[in-house]
Design brief:
The protein is an alpha/beta fold and 285 residues long. The chain has one domain: Vaccinia Virus protein VP39 (Rossmann fold), CATH 3.40.50.150. It has helices at 2-12, 26-34, 38-41, 44-47, 49-56, 75-82, 106-111, 115-122, 124-127, 159-164, 166-169, 171-182, 214-223, 262-271, and strands spanning 13-14, 63-67, 87-92, 134-138, 150-156, 183-196, 212-213, 227-232, 276-282. Helix 6 (75-82) links the parallel strand 2 and strand 3 (87-92).
Length: 285
């Protein structure tokens, strides 16, 4: 049984040299990436947006849900790339989840109450004349009119906190249910997630350190109704070998443990950004 399982995994493993999937437009995406600021382009060597979005089959004209868009690193790429015939929908964590982190100020927590309106307004300058219109919702409170509208949902470095706080409010379950409901039949879920080694303790790889195990994540996605399509090594980084005392934010761009230690910061820079699994799922037709 083990040999059969390994053979199936090997058949679905896709290398970073794979061709673009679906209707992804390689030339348009390359042009969009070339137009980004130096700060955005500085992360390309770690985040491989050309290959990643190509692997997921993200194409102009699509309706795409982007989970936890944060400061907009991927949003700034997606809005002009999917274009005015597409639509970008930002999806933030539930407001009930943010106090659980323990480090957000009262002002920041209050700002989350208007995020659904603030996020689209803040993306206007990134759209230009031909960029995609933008809307937003928070997980656990997706409007009914968004059901069945999306061609793809992207969870890019967004699942660990949902898993971490699942026991406090079912946040992962709610987010995956929203993703399932938002998608059209046959729609794609693209996942990029900090990956824990299989031999690491499960309680270390619960999301609190930023890392999740591949088997855990696939099982959760399948339990939510999605079909596993393929995996890719696009965002793998074998230099990232965390110990049980480590967390992902020791690495760039966060440098939490080395901001005042140039020697340690150099070590973290040499590792680069985290080792990441890149997984593709589909909502059954």
């Amino acid at each position: 049984m083990y040999k059969i399982l390994m053979s199936l995994i090997a058949l679905t493993l896709v290398s970073s040299s794979s061709v673009f999937a679906g209707g992804a437009d390689e030339e348009r995406l390359a042009s969009t990436l070339a137009s980004q600021s130096e700060d955005i382009q500085a992360r390309y060597g770690y985040r491989h947006p050309q290959e990643t979005l190509g692997f997921f089959g993200i194409a102009p004209g699509m309706t795409v849900v982007e989970a936890l868009p944060g400061g907009g690193w991927y949003t700034k790429i997606l809005v002009p790339y999917i274009g005015q015939d597409g639509r970008l929908i930002g999806a933030d964590y539930s407001g009930d989840m943010y106090p659980l982190f323990g480090f957000f100020s009262e002002e920041q927590l209050q700002a989350k109450k208007t995020w659904v309106a603030d996020f689209p307004a803040g993306t206007a300058e990134w759209a230009g004349e031909e960029g995609a219109p933008v809307s937003a919702f928070v997980f656990g409170a997706m409007p009914d009119e968004m059901k069945g509208q999306a061609d793809a949902v992207l969870f890019i470095r967004a699942l660990h906190n949902l898993a971490r706080f699942e026991g406090d409010g079912g946040f992962l379950t709610a987010a995956l249910q929203n993703a399932y409901d938002a998608l059209k039949p046959g729609g794609i879920v693209g996942v990029v997630q900090h990956q824990a080694r299989d031999e690491m303790p499960d309680d270390w790889a619960d999301g609190s350190k930023g890392y999740l195990k591949k088997g855990f994540l696939i099982a959760k996605m399948e339990a939510a109704g999605f079909e596993f399509v393929a995996a890719s090594d696009i965002n793998a980084n074998e230099k990232d070998q965390p110990a049980e005392t480590d967390f992902v934010w020791r690495l760039p761009p966060s440098f939490v443990t080395s901001r005042d230690n140039p020697e340690l910061k150099a070590e973290m820079t040499a590792i680069g950004e985290s080792n990441r699994m890149t997984l593709k799922f589909r909502k059954p037709k």
